[in-house]
Amino acid sequence: MANFPIYTLESAPEASKPALNGLAEAFGMVPNIAGAIAGSPKLINGLVGVFQQAHGGSFTEAQVQTLLLTNAVTNGCTWAVAFHSFLALKEGLSEADVQAIRARRLPDDRKLAALSHLARTLIDKRGRLDDEDIASFTAAGFDQALVLDVILVVAASTMTNYAGSVTNPPLEAAFQPYAWQA
């Protein structure tokens, strides 16, 4: 397997440093996955821009983490599952809902279940939703236009999930309790 370097704020390509600085400010550290992605200034900068839109959108942070954790599990990205399990719990998701998503089940919370189901369906069907998929989402109390915001979060996490699966960064000690295997 290829060995991708994990760049730091000091060792990253110059064009990647602003994005890494922003992530360090947001998380208090540069996550290893971002350090690996920093080898491509285009990807790390694109990723940070898309994630800023996803986190500043119509969903609460708990809802965003539901989507990101679902996407990581569906895409089989072990690093991202651990990271988003940690963040989902930090944002107030119940342990039971986090475990359900990690086990490819729906959370008990009705709205989180609708988000998780729609995200998984988008990935599984490669974006080809039907009327029933959208009706199921809106029946949980979401506006139809928010389907498009779910697509934004799926797109953002797809970049991270694919890059994480390719670069296979080591899992930080803080996320070890949330380690997961596909």
Automatic annotation (TrEMBL):
Protein name: Carboxymuconolactone decarboxylase family protein
The species this protein was found in: Paraburkholderia pallida
Domain of life of the source: Bacteria
Listed PANTHER family: CMD DOMAIN-CONTAINING PROTEIN, SI:CH211-175M2.5
Gene3D superfamilies referenced in this protein's UniProt entry, alphabetically: AhpD-like (1.20.1290.10)
SUPFAM superfamilies on file: AhpD-like
InterPro entries per record: AhpD-like
